[in-house]
Specification:
The structure holds three protein chains of three kinds. Chain A is of the alpha/beta class. Chain A has helices at 51-58, 104-114, 119-132, 148-160, 178-194, 206-212, 230-233, 250-260, 273-294; strands spanning 9-19, 28-36, 40-44, 66-73, 76-77, 88-91, 166-170, 198-202, 215-220, 223-228. In chain A, the strands form two sheets. Chain A has a six-stranded mixed beta sheet with strand order 6-7-8-3-9-10, with helices on both faces. In chain A, α4 (148-160) packs parallel to α5 (178-194). Chain B is mostly helical. Chain B has helices spanning 14-17, 21-37, 41-57, 62-82, 103-129, 132-141, 146-174, 185-191, 193-216, 235-257, and strands at residues 92-96, 99-102. In chain B, β1 (92-96) and β2 form a beta hairpin. Chain B is flat. Chain C is of the alpha/beta class. Helix content of chain C is 37%, strand content 21%. Chain C contains eleven helices and ten strands. In chain C, strands 6-7-8-3-9-10 form a six-stranded mixed beta sheet, sandwiched between helices. Classes of the chains: A alpha/beta, B mainly alpha, C alpha/beta. Chains in contact: A-B, A-C, B-C. At the A-B interface, α2 and α3 of A face α7 and α9 of B.
């Protein structure tokens, strides 16, 4: 991309360090991060790496503890004293404990009501938001009756109705079954096609992350230890392809093996399923032709 | 298995949709006052019929009222068996276990059963016709601080959640051969920590997650808040409220005059 | 563990016969005529979407639920007789979230809870606790505060506290939820070692990639029925069948099936297998 002015960056984090009062170890040990407007950034890494703490900071919910470094969201510095940060919205992991309303409509209205938005505008926004997360017609449904996947989609709508520029998602699928996971991933993918929203998503599901993310960060021990676009990052032997490494998409593991065998080169490596199938189809066809012509 | 938050049933009725939650709360209060003011079964029975008529007006099915009615019937039977031994007066009917059973005793027993039935059914009809959201907004208008209102909703929301947690914890510990029923009382107390402990920890986790989620959604970020739920008193509400007030004053007056009573000796 | 399991006659570990179940008399039937036989020493994965009936079926194995019709026998015992606590000698059940069972201050006390409930002699109980802690790799944490352990270690603690009861049959519900890859592999390896001692393991999971790597037999449950049951390699390569349970074959299997015309086998299940196949196809 072209050279960028600071307005292009919706998130700028510099030298961020954070330590919880009860811990000797730093939860964040010097994080530097910039996120471009409209970018989809995935974050992965083992539990305890500091991913959730980073999300909280980017939502302006800085936990109690020692903080140093600089956080800017939408060009504005975020500190403990900052007013409620409307530029970013955060969806949490547990579908059960982030839904407060007894009905879907009531739950959707909760956020904007808190921000004293006009009730008429809120009412008008509800069906639009439900459509975005494919819950059309669920306005009056009671929230306890929703499935896990539906609850998480409602939580995403709860975030979107606040009209944020940045959507932060902290492991939104890890408590869901495969059906629920797919529902949530589809909604996020569709959202990206329709709106100019910046997404930062903490996620362990490497295969889905590779399909959606422009860039993936790997965190460990409070630091970003590796990062890159999926087709580059998942080639990293130090991060993924070792016995206790992070999970890469299966296809990336296979292609990494072929790379080591010298059967493909680095430019052919990819991490998305369709890309891999196309590349392999192409390669296998040419190989067959070559075999046939030699034979 | 799903556990409902409340027994509220949505219906397109006048009582559900048109009447302010504050009026319905006042009506419930008035029924309680009336139920306590009289102790003659005919009067209480009459009021009970009115409550059942209100339930019909609210398009509630008889089936949905059944649990409340069955529960009340128990009280009625119990009350009929006990009160005649204490309340005397009026023509004697027969002698049982050396005690004379009189008409007034039977009537008073009947009245006390009807009184409980009246209160239970009125409370049931009230809950089935007043949505928790509207009630919360109503209470806020009556001066309840909005943080307390949200706490109330959260409490309703988390009762079924924590109940599900309790069931899971109990099952997990049973699978570790915990059998509280077979322990002596001392061991039972000691070993119930295996259920209370995790439930306590989970409750704190749930409360913390919820607090964070509330904060992320701007709770208490501004002074006060708006609400999409609209309630407001109409002329109908005012007429109902005046009628209720009149009925209560009348009932208290009649009580003082001793009308509508079997006996003055008991409430 | 030390002594091998005594195999009294060769009763099946789990024998579910024409079981029907509903949660309440008026509720819908959630298991329809389910039959399943798991022999002693088997390692079986139970897969399917939530609400399909996996957990309902698994709760029949240790008597938490009793069939409305049909019979469930575990190690030959009809589950309608004994209480859940009594069946705990035969069937261990590890719940998904370790926080639903951890209550003791110390790791060792937590693990000793089951053996204590079984009224084992103290020396025997202590020995089993040590063995269980050793097996899951928590020996060095024996005197630590149980709640201070990370999620992965708490999961191991939950497993250890059931293993210490030394049940011949073990049911494990979603052991990898909330764990990273390494944590998940550790738990499945642990179950594998326990299985190698002749014990029966039934694991409920959504992680088909790990099932493909580690578990020989797979049972698919959907809509309250068993819709597939067989060797994992066969079951997981049938995309249409998995689709009925709203599941998809592992990514390598999907890719392999799209490359079939180049001679790639359609029942490839693991990364190593696909790599080997492609190496062959691209090699010569």
């Amino acid at each position: 991309m072209a050279d960028s002015t600071s307005e292009e960056y919706v998130i700028e984090v510099q030298g961020l360090r954070f330590r919880y009062p009860s811990s000797e170890r730093e939860a964040l040990a010097g994080v530097d991060l910039v996120v471009r407007r409209g970018e989809f950034v995935g974050i992965t890494g083992p539990s305890g790496a500091g991913k959730s703490t980073l999300c909280l900071c980017l939502k302006g919910l800085i936990p109690a503890g020692e903080l140093s470094g600089r956080i800017q969201v939408g060009g504005k510095a975020v500190t403990r004293q900052s007013a409620f940060l409307e530029r970013s919205a955060l969806v949490f992991q547990d579908p059960e404990t982030q839904i407060i309303g007894l009905t879907v409509a009531e739950d959707l209205a909760f956020g904007p009501e808190n921000l004293k938005r006009d009730p008429d505008l809120i009412r008008a926004a509800i069906p639009r938001m439900l459509h975005e997360v494919r819950l059309d017609g669920y306005d009056e449904a009671e929230t306890y009756q929703l499935s896990g996947g539906q609850k998480q989609r409602l939580a995403i709508a709860d975030a979107l109705i606040l009209e944020p520029d940045i959507l932060l998602l902290d492991e939104p699928t890890s408590e869901l079954d495969p059906v629920g996971k797919d529902e949530v991933f589809e909604v996020i993918a569709q959202l990206r096609r329709k709106r100019d929203v910046t997404v930062v998503m903490v996620e362990h599901a490497a295969e889905q992350l590779a399909e959606m993310a422009d860039r993936i960060l790997v965190m460990d021990d409070g630091q970003i230890v590796d990062q890159g676009p999926p087709h580059v990052l998942y080639r990293s032997a130090a991060t993924f392809h070792r016995p206790d490494g992070e999970r890469a998409p299966q296809i990336a593991e296979v292609l990494f093996g072929l790379l080591q065998d010298g059967l493909i080169d680095e430019s052919e490596f990819c991490a998305r399923e369709e890309d891999a199938i196309n590349m392999l189809t192409d390669k296998l066809s040419r190989h067959h032709v070559r075999l046939a012509s030699h034979g | 298995m799903p556990v409902g938050y409340s027994i509220y049933v949505e219906r397109p009725s006048l009582i559900h949709q048109r009447i302010d939650p504050r009026t319905k709360l006042a009506a419930l209060g008035a029924v309680f006052v009336l139920a306590l003011a009289f102790n003659h079964p005919a009067v209480l029975g009459g009021i009970l019929v009115l409550v059942l008529l209100a339930a019909q007006l609210a398009q509630l099915s008889w089936r949905s009222l059944l649990p409340a009615m069955v529960g009340s019937l128990w009280f009625l039977v119990l009350s009929l068996l006990i009160w005649p031994f204490y309340v005397k007066g009026g023509p004697s009917l027969f002698i049982l276990f050396g005690s004379t059973i009189s008409v007034n005793g039977v009537l008073f027993g009947l009245a006390m059963g009807l009184r409980v039935a009246l209160m239970v059914l009125a409370a049931g009809v009230w809950m089935m016709t007043t949505s928790p959201q509207k009630l919360t907004v109503g209470l806020l208008r009556l001066g309840l601080p909005y943080k307390a209102g949200v706490a109330m909703t959260a409490a309703i929301r988390f009762v079924p959640l924590l109940n599900a947690e309790r069931i899971t914890i109990t099952e997990a510990q049973q699978a570790r051969a915990l059998d509280l029923k077979r322990e002596n009382p001392f061991n039972r107390a000691v070993k119930s920590i295996a259920i209370i402990g995790p439930l306590f920890v989970r409750s704190i986790d749930v409360a913390q997650s919820l607090a964070l989620a509330l904060e992320a959604r701007g709770f208490a970020a501004r002074d006060g808040r708006t609400s999409i739920v609209q309630i407001g008193m109409t002329t109908t509400d005012r007429i109902i409220l005046i009628a209720l007030a009149a009925a209560c004053l009348l009932a208290i007056g009649l009580r003082i005059l001793g009308i509508g009573l079997i006996t003055r000796a008991y409430l | 563990m030390a002594e091998p399991v005594q195999l009294q006659r060769m009763e099946p570990a789990i024998d579910v016969s024409e079981v029907r179940f509903r949660y309440s008399a008026s509720g819908p039937e959630v298991l329809h005529d389910v039959s399943l036989r798991v022999e002693q020493g088997e390692y079986v994965a139970l897969i399917g979407q939530n609400g399909g009936g996996k957990t309902t079926l698994a709760k029949h194995f240790n008597g938490l639920l009793k069939p409305v019709a049909g019979v469930v026998r575990t190690m030959g015992v009809d589950t309608r007789g004994p209480s859940v606590a009594e069946l705990a000698r035969t069937v261990g059940y590890v719940y998904q979230n370790p926080d639903h069972q951890i209550f003791a201050q110390k790791v060792r006390t937590e693990v000793a809870f089951g053996p204590h409930n079984l009224k084992l002699p103290p020396e025997e109980a202590a020995r089993r606790v040590d063995e269980a802690l050793e097996l899951v790799g928590l020996r060095e944490y024996a005197d630590e505060f149980a709640f201070s352990l990370g999620r992965g270690l708490r999961q191991k603690l939950a497993v250890a506290s059931v293993l210490a009861m030394s049940p011949p049959v073990l049911v494990v519900d979603e052991p990898t939820t909330g764990l990273d890859l390494q944590g998940s592999r550790n738990i499945l390896d642990l179950l594998g070692r326990w299985n190698a001692d002749g014990r029966t393991i039934i694991v409920i999971t959504h992680d088909l990639a790990l099932v493909a790597e580690r578990v020989p037999r797979t049972v698919v449950i959907s809509g309250g029925r068993i819709i597939a049951d067989g060797a994992t390699s066969t079951v997981l390569s049938e995309a249409d069948l998995l689709g009925k349970a709203f599941l998809r074959p592992p990514q390598v299997t999907r890719v392999a099936q799209r490359l079939q015309k180049f001679g790639i086998a359609s029942d490839v299940m693991t990364v190593a297998q696909l790599r080997a196949q492609l190496r062959l196809a691209l090699g010569e």
